[in-house]
Design a protein that fits this description.
The complex is a heterodimer. By secondary structure, chain A is mainly alpha-helical. A two-stranded antiparallel ribbon of chain A has the order 1-2. The relative contact order of chain A is 0.20. The C terminus of chain A is likely disordered. Chain B is an all-alpha fold. Chain B has seven helices and one strand. In chain B, helix 1 runs antiparallel to helix 2, helix 4 runs antiparallel to helix 5 and helix 5 packs antiparallel against helix 6. The chains are: A mainly alpha, B mainly alpha.
Amino acid sequence: MMDTMFSSLFTLLTTGHLMMLMCIGVFIGIIVGITPGIGGRLSIALAIPFVFGMDMIAGAVLLLTMHAVNGTSGQISSIMFGVPGDGDDAATTIDGYPMAKKGEAGRALGASMTASGVGGIIGAIVFAVMIPVLEPVVLAFSPAEFFLLALLGITFIAVLAGGKNFLKGIIVGFYGMILATVGADPATGTTRYAGDFLFLWDGLSLVTAVLALFAVPEMISLAVKGGSIANVGDSKVRFSYRDIFSGVLEVPRNWWLALRTSIIGACIGMIPGLGGSAAAWICYGHAVQTSKTPEMFGKGAVQGVIAPETASNAKEGGSLLPTLFFGIPGSSGMAVLMGAFLILGIQPGPTLIQNNMNLVWTLIWALVVGNVIAVSFLLFVARWVSVLTFVKGNLIVPFILTMTVFGSFINEGQWENLVILVVLSAVGYGLLRFGWPRAPFVIGLVLGHIAEESLNKAMSLWGMSFFTRPLSLVLIGLIVLTIGYAIYKNRKPTNIPSETALYE
Amino acid sequence: MSNITMSKAGAKIAMTLVMFAIFAVMVGVASTYPPGARFMPYVVGIPGLVMCAIQLFLDIRDLRANARDDDDDGKSEMERAAEEVARVTGRKMDFSEAEGATAVVVEESKEGRGRREAIVWASFLGLIGGILLFGFWIAVPLFIGGFLRFYAGRTWRFSLLLTAAATAVYYGAFVLGLKVVLHEGFVIEAIKDHFGWY
């Protein structure tokens, strides 16, 4: 294992094109993180056509780096202008923005970016440490169990993304699964739902479907809503590199808190359904509880910036674990990322551990190196990139929409995909407009084929007794527990908004 | 119950009905396939239908109970955050310092939303139709320029500059970089065929 671990790092650092792709990923991730209207999921969806046909490792490194550094730049607008980029950054606003109002924006930014980087690195380390622990568990799964794992994945993500609308989430997941049956049936060769359309015989284009469900509806919604973040100017939002550096030093000064919240964040990331905002808020609460001066929180305590930032970035490493090893994405962003991984030919589950540990270690190192690059870069350019916060939504829309159309066309080179894009976009827009979560759709669509193959295999091997195998019973139990928990949670009033509310 | 709430609830029911119809059609079509081929569509589609029916029941119940979907309790985001952290830590929290951002989010009015929705959808359909008929290199610049000038309200100069820059980037990335052969458009292909230009 040590050999694979260090050879992966060596390969990553010495392969020119991998380092270049990582720098590109960091750059795009930072821009996407700070520009309003483009979320991490959307950026992954848009990048899929460009990684199509790329080498598995190169494509995965690019996408993961992009996704991982996304949150690192999101806090800039939270601190400088009190406008959180997404749900994960809301907790940072509580102390970050009062710090900026007191003229300590540089210190807050230095602390938050370093904390975010440290969190990302510790999250990757936690993932690495968990591999030997989880290896026997993952290997206990036979490919036949994938059907139930797919159902579990849909249930988890439906509860996460749907909140009180979790039933809608499960329906959308099943919608993805039924669309995955379009094309030739692997067992009988019968073409399903394809009619005389040859281009459908290989199934629906995953890239087109993902773009239609995520990119187009979000861009249309952004164009319809309009609006912008207007700069009214504030002399206090000025800082020097010396201020930033003093913030950087706050992280080693509060190392014990940073370490604890990073580990908590990574562990929360491992539990599918909890998400980044939960990690940030739980760790913020932890920082308040363990502080000797809790009355300072909410008024500009630097610990109130460090705790949520370490946690929300550390959860990326944690959520990669269920995504890669069990095929259950830890967050809705990971759901889209997993779809992209499957397109690249990365099959989550036991085969990954048995045959592709090299890739797993490369991804872990990509998280570490990507975070180091992102933090170093952001510490220098934060004051300039912050202007991107004020880009008007309507200016982004035509470019993203045309990129979406290019993306849908180029992955298979067929104009028919543009028609499919329109049809599925209409459904996607309906889902977005009426509060239906869309993340489970990706899981259903990408896991649909594997689930069908797995179900056929399991039924031919064990018949209906497949469902009474011990591991199957555990998975069925988990599905029932997840649904039960969602019902219980919905009956109990809570203030934490669902991801649907946060993102949509 | 106000008309707005009624129409919102009605639209939600319509979305559930759309999903129900999709599953119903797919299960119905699957019934014409041989047993092996229809197995998975049944495994997924029939529970999908049942869940849509339950959702429909929930939507109708909400409509009758005049339930509101948003959690608008009149509290600001920071007040709700303070309550949540207070619940976890057992301490009274005050996050009022974080209120009152230097940047203000300017929302466009909700009036005319339907009109804007129709315009954006028409633009998108125009883009796709334009690509199918006239190809990428005519439809894409027209869409970007038109959107920036007429929908985003930018000046001609700014719109043309950004359109030219974006087209150059796309050409560089897709044609020169990725060597992609893009769709030329049925009309353009027909013209080329007619005049023998290849």
